[in-house]
Each structure stands twice: as C-alpha cells, then as structure tokens.
Amino acid sequence: MTAAAQERMPALYLSHGAPPLADDPVWPGELAAWSAGLPRPKAILVVSAHWEEAPLALGATETVPLVYDFWGFPEHYYRVTYGAPGAPALADSVRGLLRAPGTPVQDVPDRGLDHGAYVPLVEMYPEADIPVLQVSMPTLDPVRLMGIGRRLAPLRDEGVLIVGSGFFTHNLAALRQGGIPAWSAEFDAWGREALEAGDVDALLDFTRKSPAGLLAHPRTEHFAPLFVTMGAADAAGELGEQKSVIDGFWLGLAKRSVQFG
After folding, report:
1. Cβ distance 226 to 258 under 8 Å?
2. The pTM is what?
C-alpha cells in the first residue's frame, strides 16, 4: 500500500437529523464513535442538503456565525455555537479542482455553517479545532453531483474528510405520530441493498427504481449529497468499499449513514 493510500481519508454520507439530534439518547454517541474510529482530518469539506446555490459557492473561509436555518424550536437550539477555524487553503484547492470554462465557482464569505453541517460536527468533533469549509450544491442532478465528487476526490489524499450531509429518507409532511412509515422502511431497505450491491445505476435513478422513492424524497435535496460522496469514492475505485456505520430510524426517518473507503 502506498503512503498516499494509507493517508487517504474516507468519504462519508451522513444523516444529520435536526437540532434535537443533540438530545437523542443514542445518536450523538453513534456519531462520536464513528469519528473516533477515523483518521484525524486535516480539514473537513461539507456538502449539505440545506445549501443549494448555483454557480457552486464556497462558504466563509474564516469563522463567522452559524446559520440557524430552522424555525419553531426551543431557544437553546439557537444558542449553539461551533467556532471551527476557517479553511482558506482548502477553499483555494477546491477552486483549483472545480473552476473551469463554463463552471464558475463563487465565494460567499459571510455564509456560515448551516445545521446540516454543524449539528453532526458538534457530536463528531466537539472541540471545533479542525478547519471546516462548506460548499453549496449547484444542482440536484445525481450524475452532475457525482462528477463534482470525482473532481474533489484528490483532496482525500491531502487529509480532507469529504462529508455529504442529508437524510436517508426525508418527508416531514407524510410523517404520522409514532411508528416507522412503510415508505421510509422500504426505501431504507432498498437503499441498503443497492449500496451493498454497488448498483450505481439504480441509485442514480432512485426516484423511479426504488419503492416509494417519491414518498421517501418528494424533493431530493436530502439524498443528493450522497452522490458527491459516491463520486469521491468512485474516483478512488472505492464504491465497493462501503459500510453503513449508523442505521435505524429517528422519528420515522431513516438515519442510515455510510462510509466509503
């Protein structure tokens, strides 16, 4: 094994829940155990379901206030802080990898981390001492997102942890009090099998090829970050080296979270 392969960071797709994830009796410990088993990143690059902007945008490269992009929660969730260092060097690398004729990259220097980024990071890296850069999703097209992930893949050999942050099923309007909806359970089981089989074509066409795909994801932004992660894994030939690190359900939604490499 080469030194580069030894140092290569895995690529993650995680379900990030909502701010009350912090009060769950199980989930924070699962995230903490996951990060404890990973090599320590030099920096973290996050693509969150909660930032769609085109052209692709880079968030703040210095520490700025968080984006509390949620409504109606108790006040203490709006007092959470996560003062991770900015990552200007990583931003330069991302620009170099992604910027090309016809594919501009823009900077949004006052855009802080949203809850899709900081909620899981608070549990995984609570010291907030690793530089973090968030980038936007410029599209929800799975093929294009995989392409972005492939172009970002070299960062893994530089100690960068690439994280796609979404939710494996996400339809708040269709949830009912108590229990796990059939559509959530069916999609989760299908997704696990497709990932284990390396069925990229099925995953790319998940709204048509999965059971209850449009119920599990009536809008696809929470599944879409998976394809950035898959692209980063595919470039290293690691799509077959995946494992579900976290599974189960939270308020009826599948919290399946996957590591490649």
Report:
1. yes
2. 0.96
